[in-house]
Amino acid sequence: MSNADTTAFTLGEASRLLAEQPFCRWWGFEALAVGHGTCTLRLPMRPELIRPGGVLHGSGYEAVADVAAWIAIMTLVGEEPMAVTIEMKTSFFRGATTDVTSEASVLRLGRRVAFLEARTFDAEERLCAHSTLTYSRAVQDPAR
């Protein structure tokens, strides 16, 4: 059995979600893999994403890490559209001139808050950025 078979949110479901969400379609994210509490997502390099100096703009590293983290949560709990980022810190190590891939993993999943990290690499597998993220999870409580 592969990792994708043991998740609450499969690679196919991740790909569907990315195709359905207008902001994900605009960025061009591609789901590469999901596992128990993990997601690997690619952001293809496009001219619109390049900053002066010829490298990926910082928002690209953060967007791909953020969406990979969102999907990583769903691999544990199923589709949770209202899980939202409440804090994100990104350290940038090098500028990418190629597609980038972000590997997100859940560090701790609570009932209301999730803590994650994401590492973003260029096509040569050099670490370009590291992010830590905190997500607020939507609690489905009809009494609220």
Description:
- The chain is an alpha+beta fold and 144 residues long.
- It has a single domain, classed as Thiol Ester Dehydrase, Chain A.
- 25% of the residues lie in helices and 38% in strands.
- The chain has 3 helices and 8 strands, in the order H-H-E-E-E-E-H-E-E-E-E.
- It has a 6-stranded antiparallel beta sheet with strand order 1-2-6-7-8-5. It has a two-stranded antiparallel ribbon with strand order 3-4.
- Strand 7 (113-122) and strand 8 (127-136) form a beta hairpin.
- The longest helix has 20 residues, at 58-77.
- Residues 1-5 have low confidence and may be disordered.
Q: How would you state the average pLDDT, rounded?
A: 93
Strand content: 35-45%
Return the domain count: 1
Q: Which architecture does the CATH hierarchy give at level 2?
A: Roll
Please compute the radius of gyration using only Cα atoms.
15 Å
List the helices and strands and how they pair.
Elements (H helix, E strand, L loop, with lengths): L10 H10 L1 H6 L2 E6 L2 E6 L6 E2 L3 E2 L1 H20 L6 E9 L7 E10 L3 E10 L4 E10 L8
Antiparallel strand pairs: 1-2, 2-6, 3-4, 5-8, 6-7, 7-8
Primary descriptors:
single chain; 144 residues; Thiol Ester Dehydrase, Chain A; 6-stranded antiparallel sheet
